[in-house]
């Protein structure tokens, strides 16, 4: 588990997050609500993480720019406007939907590799 500092594009204050992804300064990550953040090159105060509680630090994932295009190609039958709202963090999908989409994308990729 990596600890990083990231900030919202509209703000100047950085927040501490944890991630399993390999990210570097300048990369875009998304939080659980789908909001995009920019990774900064600031160092993380591990004493603060231990005091606050490592399990309480919010988790982020690396943002995948191609995601909405791939979802449209896979034809999930989810309306395009809904997908765009999820990507822009105007709406939040049910918890199981991102996992289901990831599964479908991996399945499609596996089937393409087999053929």
In words, what does this structure look like?
The mean pLDDT is 82. It is globular and about 50 Å long. It starts with a strand and ends with a helix. Strand 1 (2-8) and strand 2 form a beta hairpin. The protein has helices at 46-52, 67-74, 80-87, 96-114, and strands at residues 2-8, 15-19, 28-30, 36-39, 61-62. By secondary structure, it is α+β, with helices and mostly antiparallel strands. 37% of the residues lie in helices and 18% in strands. The protein has a 5-stranded antiparallel sheet, with no helix packed on it.
Keywords:
115 residues, alpha+beta, five-stranded antiparallel sheet, single chain
Question: Helix and strand layout, with pairings?
Answer:
Elements: E1 2-8, E2 15-19, E3 28-30, E4 36-39, H1 46-52, E5 61-62, H2 67-74, H3 80-87, H4 96-114
Antiparallel strand pairs: 1-2, 1-4, 3-4, 3-5
Strand content: 15-25%
Low-confidence stretches: none
The major beta sheet can be summarized as: 5 strands, antiparallel
- Measured distance between first and last alpha carbons: 36 Å
Shape annotation: globular
Order the strands across the largest sheet as they lie in space: 2-1-4-3-5
Q: Given the helix and strand composition, which structural class is it? A: alpha+beta
Number of separate strands:
5
What level of helicity do the residues show?
25-40%
């Amino acid at each position: 588990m990596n600890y990083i500092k990231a900030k919202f594009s509209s703000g100047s204050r950085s927040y501490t997050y944890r991630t399993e992804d390999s990210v570097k300064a300048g990369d875009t990550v998304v939080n659980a609500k789908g909001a995009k953040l920019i990774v900064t090159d600031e160092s993380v105060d591990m004493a603060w993480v231990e005091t606050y509680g490592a399990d309480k630090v919010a988790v982020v994932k690396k943002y995948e720019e191609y995601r909405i295009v791939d979802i449209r190609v896979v034809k999930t039958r989810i309306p395009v406007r809904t997908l765009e709202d999820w990507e822009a963090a105007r709406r939040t999908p049910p918890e199981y939907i991102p996992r289901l989409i990831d599964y479908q994308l991996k399945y499609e990729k596996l089937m393409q590799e087999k053929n």
